[in-house]
User: Fold these one by one.
Assistant:
Number 1:
Amino acid sequence: MAAGASDLPRRGDRSLAAEPAAPNNRAPHPDSELDMPVPTTHRTQLLIIGAGPAGYTAAIYAARAGLAPLVVAGLRPGGQLTITTDVENYPGFAQAVQGPWLMEQMRAQAEHVGARIIQDVVIAADFSTRPFRCRGDSGDEFLADAVVIATGAEARWLGIPGERELAGFGVSACATCDGFFFRGRRVAVVGGGNSATEEALYLSNLAAEVILIHRRDSLRSEKILQQRLFARPNVRFLWNTVVEAALPDASPRPSLRALRLRDLRSGAVSELPVDGLFVAIGHDPATAVFRGQVAMDQAGYILVEPGSTRTSVPGVFAAGDVADKIYRQAVTAAGTGCMAALDAERFLAASRFAGQEAA
Ligand SMILES: Cc1cc2nc3c(=O)[nH]c(=O)nc-3n(C[C@H](O)[C@H](O)[C@H](O)COP(=O)(O)OP(=O)(O)OC[C@H]3O[C@@H](n4cnc5c(N)ncnc54)[C@H](O)[C@@H]3O)c2cc1C
């Protein structure tokens, strides 16, 4: 599993705004004989942070609008779809496509229309003055008249043996995405909050049997959701139980055979044969680096004005899962990526008109 938002470096102590801008061209560096990379300052009209469906779509629209966007790709270029296999619900493809392939196509399309993609991770941001300033893990600085934050969110995983190896081969963190592949099969959902209850409800329309596994003896989700779930005849519950391992089949193509469970009261260990495991213990938006810069909700999702991608800072926009804890789909991320580019374009045009844009 690639590192999540919590693994990203936090904002440094030194104020970005207090630092002098480095020259645009690479200057001689005192350590040059040691072959140390020299930090560079990148100046752009539009900085897009994140290279998932939201970031690439924003890049495509912005490049075609002549904004010459710069995309910082982060630790996982291509985003969450690079850790899945079949994608069957992204419009435009009659047959399932592979997630990594789809993201390569989006990247190629963004580059084809003129977006520049840089491999770096934004570790600090200062949106208090324009141009906005971000610093990469490489030491490079990014100065931008407008910014699109498209850093996504990371599903939480259990961290059990077999989970990583079987991700995309029976183990998933998204029922809307992968439930269809388990029509008429037996699946397990792990978790006890709203996510798990909603995932189990969704799956109960598709799977023959849904087994919800929770380490406590009751759900934490909204009562109305619980009532709906309890009323489903094909859903059963394993309380006070944890999943200790996802066990693979012996077939050449990896697939899930069963779960190893532990009953927390008795300590008894058992095997539960299942075709699919849906881990539904929440998501973490990748926003630690923007804390204090733009308004967020308690869970760290960036707040945007309804019907737009505008954040609390004029000129800073947010698209995709980083601002969406409801839909969390590639197509919705791409849709808001498009909106962010159009919002940014309008913002930059208005700024130019007002003569505010930095030289
Ligand atoms: C296992 C799995 C299967 C899925 N299957 C489907 C499916 O079949 N269909 C579907 O529609 N959706 C699916 N989804 C959901 C879909 O992947 C997401 O909704 C979508 O990827 C969100 O796109 P995004 O661009 O907002 O963010 P992400 O895809 O999460 O991309 C975030 C990007 O931001 C970058 N980033 C993060 N922090 C920084 C930083 N500090 N500096 C620079 N860059 C940074 C990352 O490197 C990454 O490139 C699936 C998700 C998972 C986990």
Note: The domain at 5-9+44-154+283-358 is CATH 3.50.50.60 (FAD/NAD(P)-binding domain).
Number 2:
Amino acid sequence: MTIQNHTLGSNNGEQFPDLELGTYEAVLTALDVGYRHFDCACIGEAFAMTTVPRNKYYVTSKLWNNCYRPEDVGPALEATLAELKRNYLDLYLMHAGTQFWPQAFKSGNEEFPMDAQGRVISEDVSFVDTWKAMEKLILDNCKTVPAVNQVELHLYLLREKLLQFSKKHNNIITAYSPLGGPRSPGVTDEPLIREIAKRLHKSPAQVLLSWGVRRGTVVVPKSANPARIKANLELFELSKEDFEAINELSRKKIRYCFPEKLWSGVAACFEDD
Ligand SMILES: NC(=O)c1ccc[n+]([C@@H]2O[C@H](COP(=O)([O-])OP(=O)(O)OC[C@H]3O[C@@H](n4cnc5c(N)ncnc54)[C@H](OP(=O)(O)O)[C@@H]3O)[C@@H](O)[C@H]2O)c1
């Protein structure tokens, strides 16, 4: 499967490349080897230098939680465009990682405004009002059905119900931390994944990413290593047998990206779906 040419359709008629790169440093390498979908921040220089035409790649960015006040939304987008040295984005998401989010942080320049006890300082802003301000960026009055939902999703966090719900509404799920994240979760060490990888002469990461794409998700692996960035692009069609065997692997329900633990004050529990 040539991932550069492989896309998922969404409810707004857009086709989304189903392999996305989440990284800061590696965009140029990625453009060179063929990535065409970026989840990004602080990478304007790389975009400014590439000769790949702008309409040949896809850029996603996010509204950070300290800009949830409706009046902060437009300026935040402008700041992002200036930082990226681009004049438009293809997709703009509200940043929200867990079931306790979307959560407005204190408005201002601090990314994580903390109180003396080390708890994040929140503000009483309804995400519905933030969303309306996001919609206004496109049209003064529109009722936009969200096209993409980005959530943590990997072998240990299948989110089957959410995935089925999203497919029913043509809403694309982007799987972040598709390799289990940077803290060595062990998904690439699963014996079955290793066995399939060895048999097919692929890497465990390629098996997991191919499985994610076959499940109908966009996958957004992150790597700072040029060889792995390139290899992660070379996905393939898993057989039905291998696909189903991976689906049957133990469902551990582990979430790796868990901001509540860092910010304290909020219970560290979750349901898969
Ligand atoms: N919306 C959100 O709240 C949110 C939260 C977290 C992440 N994200 C998005 O998801 C992206 C990826 O998430 P992530 O970094 O948490 O997880 P990930 O892509 O699952 O894992 C990244 C880790 O896997 C390693 N890796 C990459 N390719 C590999 C390969 N072929 N073989 C072995 N190891 C490999 C990387 O190391 P090397 O660099 O050494 O290759 C890195 O340590 C982020 O960049 C971001 O765009 C979104």
Note: Residues 23-261 form a domain with the TIM Barrel fold (CATH 3.20.20.100).
